[in-house]
Amino acid sequence: MSEAEIKLYNPSAAVQAAAHVSGMAAYQALCDEAERDYEGYWARLARELLSWKTPFTKVLNSDHAPFFKWFEDGTLNASYNCLDRNVERGLGDKTAIIFEADGGEVTRATYSELLARTSQIANGLKGLGITKGDRVVIYISMSIDGVAAMQACARIGATHSVVFGGFSAQSLRDRIEDTGAKAVITADFQVRGGKQLALKSIVDEAIALGGCDSVANVVVVKRTGAPISMTAGRDIWMDDLVAGQSTTCEPTWVEAEHPLFLLYTSGSTGKPKGVQHSTGGYLLHAALTTKWTFDLKADDVFWCTADIGWVTGHTYITYGPLALGGTEIVFEGVPTYPDAGRFWKMIQDHKVSIFYTAPTAIRSLIKAAEANDAVHPKSYDLSSLRLLGSVGEPINPAAWEWYHQHIGGGRCPIVDTFWQTETGGHMITPLPGATPLVPGSCTLPFPGIQATVVDETGKEVPWGQGGILVVKKPWPSMIRNIWGDPERFKKSYYPEDFKGQLYLAGDGAIRDAKTGYFTITGRIDDVLNVSGHRMGTMEIESALVSCTELVAEAAVVGRPDDTTGEAICAFVVLKRPLPVGDEAKAIAKQLRDHVGKEIGPIAKPKDIRFGENLPKTRSGKIMRRLLRSIAKGESITQDTSTLENPAILGQLGQNY
Ligand code: 6R9
């Protein structure tokens, strides 16, 4: 970007004056403090932001790098930090959660109420024999009980693993098996967009698939009360589990490194990996980034629209805002129901002041707003907003400008936050009262985060030159391990190419030649980002070829999509003659449904193309670059002379 093209948005004097980090000099001072005394900086913040049962004396332990330990001799409890201490500070009657159901009904929970509910669930789980170190899978929709269930696990030292409600029985089964969970917490149904989805019956199906012998109990939250089947001796209603339980429960104090949660995410190879997070370091960054990036204050109404099934929901719904005693929205539904004005109406109704969502949602709501004034943000009073955020994928400048003008009224800074499941919290992001904004850039590293751009040998490249995004020093909220697979952890994140010294994010990046601002250029591995959801191309390929009666071979690539960022495009070789017309359409539908069953609806390929075979190199490697060009509809400029059967290019050009 040339200087003339860069449009800077400086924080207004009022925004800057009121912010926790006020002005670039304050930002720089924090970066300098971290530079001068890295451990001292994080230790200071860990003491300021968290309450410790046993104060830590050690900060960072790198003896077994890259298996780093932070604050290892300190003990604490995440749920104590999020709930009890707010009540002790006099915030017992403050609203912690404003829950809005799909149909619009609103329920509120104060800090005292959330603490009581969490404690009852915690006591109930203890009654089922769940203790420190046990794993609990949570497969539930957005609800106060969803948050309370996570907090309850944290309270008793059980490690939770939340599985997004959109994943299939097969995916759920894989995660249950990998975690060895003792219990599953679910709901009878999930209600989204006016439709009911039978969550509990998916849990039954997952367990029936086998490999889930570790599960002794299934706890079921009643959402609709429509009939479901309950297995005697195994299944118990949440209402019955908590009935008669005390509303107090002494927190189980755990070491800072105790695994707070496992969250499965996609990599470039193999099955989804269980990203393991710590208690102390993770909670520190959750609280700190909520304070500095979102500038959360006592009277804010904070709304992160993510699902608790994703890391964004963990850090910026379940932990960060609660650790600071904030008030937040938890929303069960979808942005387009009953119409595409739902988000704007909710901001108006609840006087939301900080709003955090994904570019894909913004892009789809722009389309809807442009087509219909009734759902255009101008038809709502959004004057309560003071800060906007974006996460999950790059936000294109056009969407940024619309978000800024139409949602933020031209006055709200936008924090474009780059981070990952593995990083626990924000890594590269503006701070609203300090950083001048550039649409499409996530700007500068969070103070203390040593992000940079290197070449394939690990050497830093000059600003203005694209390369690989890495982090030079360990940080408190970083991934600790891949559950049960330390070798894969090392290979994935601290590869030998960089002598095991640099954290590899898996994204490409470029820093502006003049400002040093970062722009993320997309994944450098075979991970797709569809509507902000991460998916491995290999996972989808395996799902396709597992349809053994139909599929001989499959290759999956991403292609750009105006709304979802990337779209999944599958190239399939069938075990039968090449289909055309309606028959091809019917088979494509069958394959989409199959992938939906294997992984979940979010993984269904948008495009399906059939060929008698796939383009391969002489050594038999699938020519993925060529497939990407075909998927984009580009004319083929690559050398295709080595193709065994050039006719397939014509076949693969047809999209079903
Ligand atoms: C929090 C989350 C991580 C991947 C990441 C990158 C992409 C996330 C971004 C962004 C550009 C941003 N990503 N935020 N790309 N700008 N502000 O999304 O975690 O689901 O693990 O995805 O998402 O590619 O590597 P996760």
Q: Give the low-confidence spans.
A: none
Strand count: 30
Query: What is Rg?
Result: 24 Å
Q: Compute the separation of the termini in Å.
A: 38 Å
Protein structure class = alpha/beta
Q: Helical segment tally?
A: 19
Overall average residue pLDDT: 95
Bound chemical compounds:
ligand 6R9
Shape category: globular
Spatially, the strands of the biggest sheet line up as 5-4-17-16-18-19-20
User: Percentage of helical residues?
Assistant: 25-40%
**Mind summarizing the main beta sheet?**
7 strands, mixed
Name the beta content range: 15-25%
EC number: 6.2.1.1
Modified residues (N6-acetyllysine): 621
Domain AMP-binding enzyme C-terminal: 539-621
Binding site for Mg(2+): 545, 551
Describe the fold and architecture.
This protein has 656 residues and is of the alpha/beta class. 32% of the residues lie in helices and 21% in strands. The protein has 19 helices and 30 strands. The strands form nine sheets. The chain has a seven-stranded mixed β-sheet with strand order 5-4-17-16-18-19-20, sandwiched between helices. A five-stranded parallel β-sheet has the order 7-6-8-11-12, sandwiched between helices. Strand 4 and strand 5 (106-110) form a beta hairpin. The two termini are 38 Å apart. The structure holds ligand 6R9. Residues 265, 310-312, 391-394, 416-421, 442, 505-507, 520, 523, 529, 532, 534 line the site of ligand 6R9.
